[in-house]
Amino acid sequence: MILEHKQAVLARLREDSALVNKTFDSEVKSTNGAAVPPAYCVVYTDQGQREVERLNASQTRANFTFTIHSVGTSAEQAQAVAEKVYTQLLGFKPTIAGRNCWPVRAEMSQSVRMDKDVLPPVFYAVDEFTLSSTPA
């Protein structure tokens, strides 16, 4: 179930032509020796928080958190990637077999920061989104 939710979010982000080859799952990997793009996003997914009925202990709802780092060579570039991410995800209601999904909602946002631990330094913004679903 985790995989299906994650794939839906990654696919939605990659529908934007600006993010299609610039959306990474958990780590940034170059393809065929190509350089890492100057602006991109990295998606981290938790294992989901599951809720159950009190009386019969059947699962009623799952909440998945997606933490997305939008990265660029400047603060403006990182913010532009973050804006694309918001446009793609906020209110998005995926179709997942066997699940009824709720619209994605934004939960948290952090200011753009500079990461001087990498060379050359990059700027990044962190945003958190939640996707909830119930059994169909």
* Mean pLDDT across all amino acids: 92
Unreliable parts: none
Number of helices: 2
CA-based shape: elongated
| Overall radius of gyration | 16 Å
The H/E string reads: HEEEEHEEE
Measured by DSSP, the beta-strand proportion falls in 35-45%
Can you give the helix content as a percent range? 10-25%
Content-based structural category: alpha+beta
Number of strands: 7
Largest sheet: 7 strands, mixed
N-to-C CA distance: 13 Å
General description of the model:
The chain is an alpha+beta fold and 136 residues long. 21% of the residues lie in helices and 40% in strands. It has two helices and seven strands. A hairpin with a 6-residue loop joins strand 3 and strand 4. The protein is elongated, with a radius of gyration of 16 Å. The mean pLDDT is 92.
Question: Layout of SSEs?
Answer:
Blueprint: H1 2-14, E1 23-25, E2 40-45, E3 49-52, E4 59-72, H2 75-89, E5 99-101, E6 105-115, E7 122-135
Summarize the structure.
With about 140 residues, the protein is α+β, with helices and mostly antiparallel strands.
Properties at a glance:
about 140 residues, 2 helices, alpha+beta, single chain
